[in-house]
Amino acid sequence: MVKYTETEIIVANAAKEIQDGDIVVIGQGIPMAAGVLAKATHAPNCIILTEAGLVDIRPFRNPLHIADPTCTRGYTYSCDMIDIFATIVNRGLVDVTFLGVGQIDRFGNMNSTVFGDYDNFRMRMMGAGGAPEFFGYARKAVLTMRGGKFVEKVDYVSSPGYLDGYGARERAGFPPGSGPKVLYSAKGVFHFEEESGEIFLYGLFPGHTVGEIKAEVPWELKVAEELVELPPPTREEVDLIREFAPEIAAGRRLQLELSVPRILQALNKQRT
After folding, report:
1. CB within 8 A of 76, min separation 6: which ones?
2. CA angle at residue 206 from 202 to 209, to 5 degrees?
3. pLDDT tens, residue by residue, 88-117
């Protein structure tokens, strides 16, 4: 049996949301690892682009930021951010987008800006960036949540989901049919009901239970009648993820476990 981390099983399953030939807008971290894995396995003809303007990139490591040209072996063409939105995203040409989540409520409203009060926050995150546009115009928005939380009400709405339920998003002026479609957490996968816009548990990762997931959700979480059991990553998938993004594969906890002793050892040497 292949040993894998929580992040690796998220990446391996999220990658399957991409079909061969899809046009995919991706940022850094887990989403980029999922895109690269898809392109290396079942979707070699997908086109990966970043909101900063690199189109059809072929990255060999995770970008340091959304405009990092040193992460890729090449790209078909580059343009500026306005062109990415005006000529690709806003014309509805994007098939899939991936977005990271800090907090999310039952209707998919997402916070990636601050924890706590906006003017007196406990922690500042990366912010929305182009997420609201991607939510609005991509055919499928895939969310990944690693370390984030389900909450009754997000501290800040970075990217509106289905607002307060069915029809609210369209009434607010967003394109019909837009909004989040699927969320991967460290324990399972969630979909959104078409008739209500409410999130529900669709499948479980190996070793996790419905009760365990419900305990993390502050409302009565709906559960699919027939839950899907999601597969663990294969040996090939784990190897590809670790080669591309070892810092992501390791996860934050393992990174700390490995790096802290080295830092303390170095400090002790300096003292002696």
Report:
1. 47, 55, 56
2. 60
3. 999 989 999 998 888 999 999 999 888 888
